[in-house]
Fold each of these.
Amino acid sequence: MSGIKKLAGQTLWYGVPTIASRFLGYLMNMALPFFIALPEKTADLVQVYTIIPFLNVLYAYGLETAYFRFSQTHDKQKLYNTLSLSLLFSSIFFSIVLLLCQHSIVSAADLNNHPDYVLWMIAIIAVDNLNTLPFAKLRQENRPKRYAFARVAGIVLNVLVVILFMGVIPKILESSPDNFLGWFYSKDFGLGYYLLGNLCGSLFTLFVLSKEIKQVKIRFDFKLWKEVMRYSAPLIIVGLGGMINDVLSRLIYRHVVDLPQTQADHELGIFANIFRIALLITIMIQAFRMAAEPFFFNKSNDENAQKTYARIMKFFVIACCFMFLFIGLFLDAFRWIFITFANKRWAEGLEIVPLLALGNIFLGIYYNLSVWYKLTNKNMYGALITVGGAGITIALNILLIPKLHYTGAALATFSCYLFMMLSSYLLGQKYYPVPYPVKKLTAYLTLAVLIYLFHMGLVNIVTGSLLFSLGTGLVLFIFFSWFVSKIEAKELAKLPVVGKYFNR
C-alpha cells in the first residue's frame, strides 16, 4: 500500500497546483458570459483554443512520455540534452511553417474577423512547448513543490493580465478617457486579451523554469534520438487522435450544422460553455496523470506492480464518481448563476453536461488502462485504439450534429470514449493483465448514474425550486459518500491525509 500512499501524496502535490491553475483558468473562461452578453461573440476564441491542442501534439511529438520511459534505462542528462535540443529546433521549424501558412489557417478556421489571433496562437504554442521537458524533468525527479510554484505562477499572471485588460482598464477609461492607460488598451482587441494573458503567463512560466532550462547542454546524441523517435512516433498518432476525439466537434461545428452563421456561432458558444462545466472532471484527471505517469514507469519493475495499478484504478473511479455527482446533482446551481448574473441564453443546453461528464470519466479510465501499451512498448496498439475512436468521433459528429446539434456532439464524444475504454481494457488484459476489480468499479459507476437519474426525476416532479434541487442533491451526495466509506473503510484508512478519519 506504500506505493498508493506515495502516489496519493504526489497527486496532492501535483494535483493542487494543477487543479488550482486549471480552476483559475476555468473560472476565467467561465467569466466569458459575464464579459460577453451573447455566446456567438466568443466563437472565434473557441476556434483558436480548439486548434491549439492539435498543434501542441505536433510540437511535442510524444517526447514527454518518451522522457519518462527512457529515463529508466538511459543516462538522464544525455536524454534531457538530446530531447530539449530536438524540441527547440522543431519548435522553430513548426512555427516558421505555421507563419507561412497563416492565411490558409485563417481561412480554414473561419477567423477572417480576427486574423491576428493566429499569430498569438503560434506564439503561445511555441512558448508552451519549451516548458514541456522542464516540467517533465521536475515530475520525473519527484520535485512537486517547484512544479507547483511554476505552474501556479504562470496561470496567476495569465488571470491578472486578463482581469486588468478586460475589467480594470475599461472601467478606468470610462470615468477618465484621457488616462495614460489608454495608450496600452484597444477596445477593438476585445477577447484578444485572453490570448495576451495566456502568452504572458507562458513566458513567465518559462522564466520561472530558467534553472531547469540552463541545465541543458549543447550535446546531441543522434543514436539515442532515433531510438526515442521510434518509440514516440505512435504517440503522435495517439495524441492527434485524442485531440480529434476531444475537440473535433467544436472545430467543425459551424461547418456541419445547417444554420445561419449567427445562429451557428451562438450554438458553438453555448456548446463550448457546456464543455467547460464537464471539464471539471478532466481537471481532476489531469492532476492525477501528472503524478501517475512517472509513477507507473517507476513501479513497473516491482513484483506487485499490477496489484498496485488495480488499487489505483479503484480509487480513481471512486473520485470520478464523486465529481460526476457534484456536477450532475448541482447542475441547477450553474443554471441559476448564468440566468441571474449573465444572460439566460448561456444556460441553454446544460442537460447534456452529465453525458459529457460521464464520457470524460471513460476517458480518464482509458488513460489509466493505457499503462499496458506504454510499459510493453506496444504503442502502436494505443495508436490503433485512438484512430478507431477518432473514426467514431468523425462519423458520429457528421451524422448527428446536423440532426441533434450539440446533443449529437455530446453523444459522439460519449461513444468514442466508451469504445476506447473497452477496447483498451480487452487488449490490455491480453498483453499485460492487471486484476482490476471490474464488478466493483461497474457497480460504483452504475450507482452514481442511478443517483443522478433519481435526482433528475425528483426535480422534474417538483419544478422551479432551486432549494429543493440543491437540498435533495446534497442528501444524495452524502448518501453516496457514506456508502463508499462503508465499503472501502479499510482501504481508505491506509491513505495519507484522509486516512485518519477512517481509523476511528
Note: Residues 2-497 form one domain.
Amino acid sequence: MSNIFDITKFDSYKEDNRREVKKSNGGLPSSLWDTYSAFANCYGGVIVLGVTENKDGSWRTTGLKAENQGKLLKEFWDTINNRKKVSVNLLTDNDVEIFKLNDDIIIVIYVPIASREHKPVYINGDIFNGTFRRNHEGDYHCTRLQVKTMLRDQTDNTIDMSVLDDVPMTDLNYETIQGYRNRHRALKPAHPFGRLDDSEYLRSIGAAAISNIDKQLHPTAAGMLMFGDEYNIVRHFPEYFLDYQEILDPSIRWTDRLQSSSGEWSGNICDFYFRVYNKLVTDIKIPFKTVDGNRIDDTPVHEALREALANCLINADFYGVRGIVIRKDTEKIIFENPGYSRTGKQQMRKGGISDPRNKILMKMFNLINIGERAGSGVPNIFNTWADQNWPEPVIEEEFDPDRTILILTFKKKHRTKTSSKKQAIKTSDKTSDKTSDKTSDKTSDKTIQHMNKIKKYLSKNGPSKTSAIASYIKLSSPRTRAILNKMPEVSHDGPNNNRKYFLK
C-alpha cells in the first residue's frame, strides 16, 4: 500500500477514506478497531499511531517514544488475534511498520481489503452492531442490509442458483425462452442442448432444477431473472428494477427510456439485454470491415459494449436497492449496478480472476457467446478504448448503498464547417453560437445554480468527495465532477478514486 502512505510525504497528508491517525500515547484507542473493520470492508487503508490532526487537517506527531513501542505492539497483536474482539486477523508482521520522526515514533498499520469469504469484518462479537465501513466523514456502522449483503457473498453458491420451490415452470415467459433458444441454435447449430425439449433444456442451462421438497422441476432464481415476467420477478426480488435512459438532445429530458416496470414488455434480463444493446450501438460510428468480400459489422467496440452490458447484469446484487441503470448521452455511456465488486475494482481492472455474483446468469450469457469467463472482459474494454484513442474508462465503487459504476467516454467529434464557413459544434458541447444560444443559456443558468449550491456545501462541510456533493445537488457523480472542474474557485486533492474538492 505504498501508494497511500509514503513517509517522505507525511507533511502533505490529511485524513481521508484510506488514512486515519490515532494519538495512542495512553495505549491503543478503542476506535482503532472501528477503523480496522471499516478499512477491511471497503478499500483498505492505513492507520497511523502516534499522530494527531492540527486544526487545518495536517498531521503532527504526539510524542510517542520507542520505549512504548513494544507494549503497544503486544497489545495490538493480542487484540487482533482475539476472536471475541476482532472477527478475523487479516495482517502479518509485514503489514506493520515503525518510523521515526522528530525524535518521535509512529506505527503504521496497513489494513488490506478483506476477501468476500472474510466479510463482514466486525468487532466485539456483534456482527450487526460491530461492522463498519468508511466514508469521507470517517467510520460508520453498517446497516443490517449491508451486513446481509456481505454474508450472501461469502458462499461459493451464488444467489441465482437457488430453486424457487413454490414457482411453477409456467411462470416463465415462453417467447423469451424461444428467442434465447433460437439465438443459441443459430450460433451453435451442433450443440447437444439443441435436441432437448424445453424443460430439459432449461434444466441443462441452469434456468430450472429439481426441487428437494417436491421432486418436481421448478425455475431457479437465474431462470426467473432471465426468462420471467417482471411482475413475477419482483415477488422474489422486491428491489428488482432495470432502467435504460437515453439523452441525446439536451432540450428533452429523455430521448428514449426503457424500464422493466412499464408493463409494455416482459421486463426480464434477457429481453432487456438485447433491447438495450441495440440502442447502445445504433449511432456508434465505427467503420465496418470485410472478410473474403463479406461485410463484418461487428467490431471490438461492439464487443466491448456487449461485455460492459453483460458484466453489469451478471454482477448485480438483485436484492440491492436502486436497481440497474444504463445512461447514454452524446459523449458517454454509464453502466451502474447494485452491489460492490466481489474482486475489488483494482482486480476488476487488472483482470485474470472471474468471481461473478450470478454464476448461472454468466453461464447462460456465455452459451450465446456473450461475456468473458476468464476475467478478461473488463481489461478488453480498457484495451479497446485505448485503441480508439478515447478517454480511459472509469470504474467507481460506492457504498451505502453498494454500487459499481463503469463510465465509457467517447472522443468528442466536431462537425465539418458549415456553408457560412463557421465551425459548428454539437449543442451538447454547450457552444455559444447563435443556433444554440437558447439551449446554451438555459444550461448555463442551471449550471450557475448548481455552482452556487456547491460553494454553499463546501463552505459548510469543507473538503468533500464528488459522491457527497452529487447527493447534495441531486446530480450524477460524472455531471457533478464536470461542473466542479469548471469552477476556478474550487481546487482538489488526492487521486481520482479518493479525490476531495474544496474552496481555495
Note: The domain at 159-409 is CATH 3.30.565.60 (Heat Shock Protein 90).
